[in-house]
Design brief:
Blueprint lengths: L1 H34 L7 H19 L2 H23 L6 H19 L13 E3 L7 H6 L1 E3 L1 H18 L1 H11 L1 H6 L4 H25 L13 H11 L4 H23 L6 H5 L1 H13 L18
Antiparallel strand pairs: 1-2
Length: 305
């Protein structure tokens, strides 16, 4: 019984990192975007399009890292489109985000048809389980090489928001556009830059999906992770370090089903696979209460009450 328990625990911990890596990058990208006072609901389209572009780039070039660069660049392109369009008069962030989601997904499905069958080079794994004597533990502790990049990025963003001129400018624009304009700051330029950079970071999550886990390209690859990341940022209270822990929580929830199946417990598999979506629903319920104040929200988002 103890062996089963530890096997499941190790599998969940390994799965939390494996499944949570895309959540981490997409949530960090959205955190940066929302810190500037803009919402990007098009992240689902960004994630799908960047996953397709990353897979295609790796397949055509023979290099997984070129694929990662292609994924980030494609995410930045959609982020730039969203940011520039939302800076125009009478353009709504939410409506434009839905348009970007549909555009990115549709374009990915159209361009990605030839990529469904081929195999592309994969992002290398970091072997943390070489000390273990069992293959199951070794497999569980194979870490996506992008995950440490995400951890360092979360730490760097948290530091930059507090200690750099760039970070303080992003936060100022997110809290008061009028204050930014009074100091001579171009609010539109800051928000476009933040949305573009956020798209690039989210695109790295797409590369993780198609070039590591599950490591292939198909039209149902993201399973709504881009939309979940928006709720995850609210749960993390717009704090990059909290985004890391929240991504691991969501990743661990998504890994419970496969972990139980690996030890022969197949009952309720699909129910456990629904846990990330159930967590998202609970987050929305608790954070939308009219009696609770959402701390940490950029004032320009108008969601603090």
């Amino acid at each position: 019984m103890n062996d089963v328990f530890w096997s499941v625990l190790v599998a969940v911990l390994g799965g939390a990192i494996r499944v949570g890596t895309p959540f981490l990058f997409v949530s960090l990208g959205e955190c940066l975007t929302e810190k500037s006072g803009r919402v990007n609901l098009g992240l689902e389209g960004v994630l799908v399009f960047s996953a397709m572009a990353g897979f295609g780039g790796a397949w055509l070039s023979g290099s997984a890292w070129i694929g990662v660069a292609a994924a980030g660049s494609s995410g930045a392109l959609l982020g730039l489109i969203h940011g520039a369009a939302c800076s125009l008069p009478r353009v709504n962030d939410i409506a434009m985000g839905i348009a970007v989601m549909l555009f990115g997904s549709g374009l990915a499905f159209f361009l990605g048809k030839p990529l469904i069958q081929p195999q592309a080079p994969q992002i290398p794994a970091i072997e943390l389980g070489l000390f273990a004597g069992t293959p199951a533990v070794q497999e569980a502790l194979r870490i996506n090489a992008l995950f440490p990049v995400g951890v360092l990025l979360a730490i760097a963003m948290a530091w930059a928001f507090r200690n750099t001129r760039w970070g303080l400018t992003v936060r100022m624009v997110g809290d008061s556009a009028d204050a930014g304009r009074a100091l001579g700051t171009s609010v539109s330029a800051v928000r476009i830059a933040a949305t573009t950079a956020g798209g690039f970071i989210a695109g790295l999550g797409g590369a993780s999906l198609s070039l590591y886990y599950p490591g292939s390209w198909n039209e149902g690859l993201s399973s709504g992770q881009g939309l979940i990341a928006v709720a995850l940022v609210i749960f993390a209270r717009w704090n990059p370090i909290h985004c890391l822990w929240a991504a691991l929580l969501f990743g661990g929830a998504g890994a419970i089903g496969p972990a139980l199946q690996s030890v022969g417990i197949g009952g309720g598999y699909y129910l456990f696979n629904a846990l990330p979506y159930a967590l998202t629903l609970l987050i929305l319920i608790f954070t939308c209460s009219p009696t609770r104040r959402i701390r940490g929200a950029p004032v320009e988002l108008k969601v603090s009450q």
